[in-house]
Amino acid sequence: MKNYLQKSTSAAPLAVFRIALGLLLFVSLIRFWARGWIHELYIEPKYFFPFYGFEFVTAPGEYIYVLFAICALSALMFSLGLFYRFSSIALFLSFTYIELIDKSTYLNHYYFISMICLLMTFLPAHVYFSADAYRNKSLAANTIPQWCIDSIKLFVCMIYFFAGLAKVNSEWLLEAQPLRIWLPSKNDLPIIGWIFNYTWVAYLFCWVGCLYDLSIPFLLLKRSTRLLAYCAVISFHVLTAILFPIGMFPYIMIATALIFFSADVHKMILVLIASLFGKTKELMFPNNNFKFKPVRQSLLISIFSVFFIIQLLMPFRYMMYPDELFWTEEGYRFSWRVMLMEKAGHAQFTIKDEKGKIAVVDNTEFLTPLQEKMMATQPDMILQYAHILRDHFSNSGWSSPSVYVDSYVVLNGRLGKPLIDPLTDLAKQEDSFDHKAWILPFKNEIKGF
Questions:
Q1: pLDDT in tens, 111-163
Q2: Would you list the domain boundaries of the chain?
Q3: What's the CA gap between 110 and 136, in Å, rounded?
Q4: Which residues contact 368 (CB under 8 A, 6 or more apart)?
Q5: Reduced to 3 states, what is the DSSP secondary structure of residue 417?
């Protein structure tokens, strides 16, 4: 390990990764703004669903545009390597703050971006082919510690492997769910749409998807299979982008997978970019070797070790809870479980108080359509909404209002079942990491990880 930590490698792959990630995030944020999603998701809602432990993260109203502007500008500066330490920290903080405002918008790839930006704040991605290195020649270096690039590779490998491991379950492999539900709706696509009417296609996609996620890290790591593996990465994510509306994530993963290629490939990319600006000599040929001071490197290794231990444990925290993960969703988020279930639900809330008042809530008066859709199938969001209703009716003059819910949820095409005990007063329940005993049992079994 001591010898490994002393190894150096070309800084080119990390520079290409910095440029690609920053530009894609910049484009993604501008796209988000241009389509009016900032207003729809962060100004229009009356209430929000913060993550447990991050209740202090609140929507800043109209200032959300300032936050998005800071995030977009930070992404552009990050890509250029301009004031890199400041821009990388600003990008991580602003993007993560936006992500934490409301659970309704949670996506696995938002979490991926936050975590990869966190790692990048510690790495010397600005010492090569950057505005900082161009302005400050003493900073410029053509080599960096090898572990800096390997840490990005390790994180990407973990994501793919855990996503594949999560697909090793009876719903995905034996029932082809939820693709058996989703794919037929794509039968209007030009040329290929007709094949999605066949059930065997859903099974084929499920098995290939599982094998792809489990094997692609190892195929990318091995030089002899890397090019073929990268072609598979492009094919897989382009098809995903066509079939499912998940934004910029497929393109981010295509760009991210480039980091597995040799330094020569990345230098060719950088030469091409530099030639467009006529700055090849100034940007491509520094003679310095970047090394962390021993104390700082030891500290960074400790920080990264803790980070990866957490990432290894997070996907398995569901084992601490009883009943079916897909049903309770306790331990579901932040575990790289991608596109594994189709849930739909309906939740009707009834308010009662000590004086005998009764009211049936119209959810549209409090929530946006997206928030209502997400809340109806996720127990922790149901509890948060119950507390929103409790506080609202209490402020409206009701005496110690109780909140009850009749909720029915459909999971992967099954018949609807009650999700929450209708006799439980949710106004008196508190959120925590403990199992929520008021979630009714699934009374079914989905075998797998």
A1: 999 999 999 999 999 999 999 998 888 888 999 999 999 999 999 999 999 99
A2: 2-317, 342-449
A3: 33
A4: 40, 41, 44, 45, 104
A5: strand
